[in-house]
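Forwarding the complex inputs:
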Amino acid sequence: MSDGIGGAFRARASSPPRRTIDVVNATLARRHAAERRFRLYGLAAIITGLAFLALLFVSTVAKGYGAFQQVYVAIDVFFDPEVLAPDGKRDPDTLNAADYGAIIKRALKAQFPDVQARQELRQLSALVSTGAAFDLRDRVRGEPSVIGTTERVWLPADDEVDTLLKGGADRNAPEAERSLADRQLAWVDRWSAEGRLEKRFNTRFFTGGDSGEPELAGIWGAVVGSFYMLLVTLLLSFPLGVAAAVYLEEFAPKNRWTDVIEVNINNLAAVPSIVFGLLGLAVFINFFGLPRSAPLVGGLVLTLMTLPTIIIASRAALQSVPPSIREAALGIGASQMQMVAHHVLPLALPGMLTGAIIGMARALGETAPLLMIGMVAFIVDIPRQITDPATALPVQIYLWADRPERAFAERTAAAILVLLLFLIVMNALAVILRKRFERRW
Amino acid sequence: MHMLESDVGVEFRAATPPGRTADPVTGLRHAMPERGERATVGDFRHPRPRMTARNVDVHYGDKHAIKNVSLDIGANEVIAMIGPSGCGKSTFLRCLNRMNDTIDGARVTGAIALDGQDIYDRGMDVVALRAQVGMVFQKPNPFPKSIYENIAYGPRIHGLAGTRAELDEIVQRSLERAGLWDEVKDRLEQPGTSLSGGQQQRVCIARTIAVNPEVILMDEPCSALDPIATARIEELIDELREHYSIAIVTHSMQQAARVSQRTAYFHLGDLIEIGDTNQIFTNPRHPLTEDYITGRFG
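Prediction (whole assembly, two chains):
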């Protein structure tokens, strides 16, 4: 050491010693303040996030809860044997083919005898849903003895009446801007005064397929479509993903090829989903000739999309199994295969399942790739198998959001609620699985 | 000081006669072995060897972890391997049942034989080898299964028991030999991880002897245990010597002195000295050994 440094050192040593505690105390307040500030930033971030979430929920619930109820109108229907079974036969074919619309029209005419003009009559029958005829048919088929009697039947009202009664339409607007004419408003008011209008639980929304009439449209077709699609996705992506992860993590030699594979799996996870849709269109539909709009193709596309997620989650789960367990198994002479099957896989399985469920939840909410493979079609029938045309929940939401009727806006929000419910249930399941099977060493 | 180390080393190397270099760990100048020459002081042979290692070298990538080591493990003996951290004693131990195979980039050359059969031979199946050369690890690592399943796993995969009764017997005998039977006989269905550290390590030993190996390798089996559990394990090692050959790596020189009949001192990948435990601890012949056991470094 040079003299200069030694001199400086001595000079510092000779000045009165400062105790560490004094130095610390001088800066302590500043350090605590910094910590408090930092905590506040974090708290603010969380509150902002929660506020947005609450906003989303509140607005969706406020818009959508109305769709769970539907306005019904009570009409005294005379089940005219002349119309229903003119030749006296009451076999199902005859009853199915009968003109129930005419019966409703007659009942309405009977209720409002002063309505005579063709135009007015059309306006009057427009107040009752076109689906009311199906309800009547079901009533007669279920109980043919009702023919020839008069009965008060609750029939679904048209969506305009529904919207009006739920307060969604402005009745003071000029007639030209309203979807209900003055006359129609008067009839509705009379029904209302007579207690013939009632809001009832909207079963049809949960059991029906899509429809052009909002009061008849249901999400069941989309739910079934989504279910078939996720079934295909789960059955393909979970075994494939786990097998790929196990091979890469436990058996594959670590060389340039496996590095390339790893990088590409990570890249696949980041590919925009619509690209997978294009791929599905080109490969599954155009090349393999699989049916358009089918949950099978949707499931295949979503499998491609979910695979990287599951592989990455499964590899992470495998990596989290402590090496000591592997060594223990190998040390008593288990083969690589036995080590993986008996010890590593059971310990990694909860993590893999969690990854799979989260991947499934993502797949459930996916819309873009399904648009490319034709699952965006208007499909009324409930799909019966994976090759039937179908839509999926998010696509159904997308379709309804496009419709001009006010009642569809309500149903869009309600369908979003149902989709959110499914997602919450799936994510909760993932959390429960993780908590339940989590092991600590 | 640390930054200057390499320069100083070069200077020393230039100044000292060939074969005498400064030791990077101790900074002392001692005779270091030339390449290819066997450096070991003392006789590495055993009159009744079970395992024989000859001219073993291990490389981890560029690192030369074990340099030309030859060593016998005799029948019914406990041989202790001691040395400062990073000296290669664990690496050498892991060569003996080919656990190094699982490490990427590890390369083992030389000859290691179990009862005269080369264990690195193409025809040698690692599964069969590890059934004969069991291993107990530094950290107790019972499977997260019941105590019974922990012990029964080895016999089961090797097909050692035909019936449930036979398996029960193996489990009981192994736990008895590990001195654990009386403590756990009423709770064999409880998870092995619920036991105390010392009990867990004895479960691991019982699990190893359930396969009835020829040789047991122990890699610092007591480093995670308290003194009472350690004493219990040491007692157990002494009892096990009756049936097995045991190689134990330890950081504790007291432990080596208590449990072993022979001791091997490793230093930076070289086997410096080997001999009777008594002789090593009372009358070491190599200065590095003396420095280590007298606590000058380590």
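Chain B touches chain A at residues 97, 99, 102, 104, 127-131, 134-137, 139, 141-144, 153-154, 157-158, 193, 204, 207-208, 210-211 (CB under 8 Å).
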